[in-house]
């Protein structure tokens, strides 16, 4: 049982015009096995929340705290956060030229497990993960995210989620740019990870359609850098009907 | 052959060809003050396959040169180390050449010839090692239909000075692929040059270099499209780390008026891994005819991509290992082309070590 606790998190980003406040006091608690959907209009700060928790250097923590099972996440380097059990599935995964998917995955698994996975079981593990996500075996020999389609990038992210077995995963608009088939396949991957590893999920999305496949326990509406309304799955239905107009005006 | 008795051609550093080179560190190779030692360091390693011979003989140069050091070598040395591969010989596996002992208190003026007869196919690897002062005039002759993969590894020790012209004369339908790797030495200056003498030739000049604190590595290509329907590709990738690491890449491609149907592209990418290093990159494309298939060039110099490092680290990979992965990945494209596993592994380990030493 793990708990990610975000308390009064305030984050700014440096721009040419000076520091701009993006997160204005976010409170959120995610336990193992729970799925929290964060929904909000573009520009509300959803992605900033995701990247701040993962430790992207672009963002400056102005105040508040983030802890995982009591350990101070904000004091950790980016790799230490992953080792502590956090995972960020990125909206725009980065190309790493010349580094093959198989080399990347094995390096990451070695780092996270503390020792290199045994070659034979590892090969089987990767094969299984790829098959489950309907990925061509040749995928493993390609360079990380280089020339990947939008759908391939997202499948690659979820494959990592399944192989690296974090405690808490943040999915940043994993649904964007996916057709219905790909959305279903990717969602099934997330659900498998939930089932197999009792994963806690922070699902960031603009649209409600992914919630048909990944059922949230809690829905949080995000606007103007903080959470403006919270509720159960029915809150998503209300957003589907009314959109974000009520929250943006506030 | 003429022996130069005057130094009127001695470069001053103001010439285009010499404007980047630290002449003071050339140990007198350029101005005639170097003491010529009695060394012939180039050696074959292992048994030579059938159809391949290696011997010293007197040969006249294949092509003229406007490089003063090449002129001095020719003036001083009539003996040529000649690796010859007979017509229609297809050699399986690479032919390895290495270096005997070098010295820093005297210079070796070396002439080398690699010749392939018609339709001969071979891979030749030259491993340049040790601490030495070496000036080399290396000429490659490719008869019609011949195909050579030519790998030179500059893995010198830290005080070595190496200046060389690697000049290929490419006859009809011949294929030349060179991979120039420079990771060691104090000053290394290589002129990979190509001359097409009949149509249909195809040339790929690939290279990687990694300069750390204080090292100077210069690679100055010249590809002369003097005949129609020849193809050339140039792709050099370099990394630099540490104070006063300095690399120079010059890519001169000349498409003469007669060279219709030319297809050429040249590329140089540099990765600056720390402050205080300098990469000069100058592509020059001179086109005298519009009747060509294509001609282009690109040059980029950049730093570590923070987004790449963040992505790798977000998967638990330490900063140090993330940098190593990115740098290995950067070089992979060209190192893979070597296709000799033992060399590839050795180079990647060396690259890791250089990176670690530079603390980048």
From TrEMBL, chain A:
Gene Ontology MF terms: ATP binding; ATP hydrolysis activity
Domain ABC transporter as annotated: residue spans: 4-249
Pfam families in the cross-refs: ABC_tran
InterPro entries assigned to the protein according to its UniProt record, in alphabetical order: AAA+_ATPase, ABC_transporter-like_ATP-bd, FeS-cluster_ATPase_SufC, P-loop_NTPase
UniProt keyword list: ATP-binding, Nucleotide-binding
SUPFAM superfamilies: P-loop containing nucleoside triphosphate hydrolases
Protein name, UniProt field: Unannotated protein
Lineage start: unclassified sequences, metagenomes, ecological metagenomes
UniProtKB/TrEMBL annotation, chain B:
Domain SUF system FeS cluster assembly SufBD core: from-to ranges: 106-330
InterPro entries registered for this protein in UniProt: Fe-S_cluster_assembly_SufBD (IPR055346), SUF_FeS_clus_asmbl_SufBD_core (IPR000825), SUF_FeS_clus_asmbl_SufBD_sf (IPR037284), SUF_FeS_clus_asmbl_SufD (IPR011542)
Pfam families noted in UniProt: SUFBD_core
Biological processes per GO annotation: iron-sulfur cluster assembly
Stretches that traverse the bilayer: none
Name of the protein this chain belongs to: Unannotated protein
Species of the source: freshwater metagenome
Organism lineage: unclassified sequences, metagenomes, ecological metagenomes
């Amino acid at each position: 049982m793990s708990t990610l606790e975000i308390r009064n998190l305030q984050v700014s980003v440096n721009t040419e015009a000076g520091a701009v406040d993006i997160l204005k006091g976010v409170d959120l608690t995610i336990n193992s096995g729970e799925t929290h959907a964060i929904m909000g209009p573009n520009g509300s700060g959803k992605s900033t929340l995701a990247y701040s928790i993962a430790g992207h250097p672009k963002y400056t923590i102005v105040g508040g705290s983030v802890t995982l099972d009591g350990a101070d996440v904000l004091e950790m380097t980016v790799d230490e956060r992953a080792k502590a059990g956090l995972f960020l599935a990125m909206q725009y995964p980065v190309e790493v030229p010349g580094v093959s998917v198989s080399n990347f995955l094995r390096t990451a698994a070695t780092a996270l497990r503390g020792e290199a996975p045994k070659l034979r079981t590892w090969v089987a593990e990767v094969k299984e993960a790829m098959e489950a996500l309907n990925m061509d075996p040749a995928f493993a020999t390609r360079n990380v995210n280089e020339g990947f389609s939008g759908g391939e990038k997202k499948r690659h992210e979820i494959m990592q989620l399944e192989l690296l077995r974090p405690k808490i995963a943040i999915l940043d608009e994993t649904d964007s740019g996916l057709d219905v088939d790909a959305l279903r396949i990717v969602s099934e991957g997330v659900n498998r990870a939930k089932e197999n590893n009792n994963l806690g999920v922070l699902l960031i999305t603009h649209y409600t359609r992914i919630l048909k496949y990944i059922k949230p326990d809690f829905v949080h509406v995000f606007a103007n850098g903080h959470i403006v309304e919270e509720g159960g799955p029915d809150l998503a239905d209300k957003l589907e009907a009314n959109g974000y107009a009520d929250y943006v005006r506030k | 052959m003429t022996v130069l008795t005057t130094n009127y051609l001695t470069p001053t550093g103001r010439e285009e060809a010499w404007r980047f080179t630290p002449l003071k560190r050339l140990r007198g190779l350029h101005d005639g003050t170097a003491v010529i030692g009695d060394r012939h360091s180039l050696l074959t390693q292992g048994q030579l396959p059938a159809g391949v011979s290696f011997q010293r003989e007197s040969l006249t140069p294949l092509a003229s040169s406007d490089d003063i050091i090449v002129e001095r070598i020719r003036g001083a040395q009539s003996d040529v180390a000649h690796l010859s591969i007979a017509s229609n010989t297809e050699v399986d596996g690479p032919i390895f050449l290495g270096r005997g002992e070098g010295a820093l208190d005297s210079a070796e003026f070396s002439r080398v010839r690699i010749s392939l007869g018609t339709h001969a196919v071979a891979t030749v690897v030259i491993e340049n090692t040790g601490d030495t002062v070496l000036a080399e005039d290396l000429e490659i002759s490719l008869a019609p239909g011949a195909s050579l993969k030519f790998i030179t590894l500059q893995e010198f020790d830290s005080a070595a000075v190496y200046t060389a012209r690697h000049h290929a004369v490419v006859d009809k339908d011949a294929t030349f692929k060179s991979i120039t790797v420079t990771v060691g030495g104090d000053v290394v200056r290589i002129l990979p040059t190509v001359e097409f003498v009949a149509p249909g030739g195809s040339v790929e000049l690939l290279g990687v270099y990694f300069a750390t604190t204080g090292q100077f590595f210069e690679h100055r290509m010249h590809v002369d499209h003097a005949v129609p329907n020849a193809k050339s590709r140039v792709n050099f990738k370099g990394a630099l780390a540490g104070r006063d690491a300095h690399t120079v890449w010059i890519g001169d491609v000349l498409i003469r008026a007669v060279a219709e149907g030319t297809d050429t592209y040249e590329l140089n990418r540099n990765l600056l891994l720390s402050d205080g290093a300098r990469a000069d990159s100058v592509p020059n494309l001179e086109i005298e005819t519009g009747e060509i298939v294509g001609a282009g060039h690109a040059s980029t110099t950049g730093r570590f991509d923070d987004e790449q490092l963040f992505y790798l680290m977000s998967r638990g990979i330490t900063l140090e290992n993330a940098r190593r992965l990115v740098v290995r990945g950067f070089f992979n494209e060209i190192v893979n082309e070597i296709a000799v596993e033992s060399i590839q592994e050795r180079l990647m380990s060396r690259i890791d070590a250089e990176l670690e030493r530079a603390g980048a």
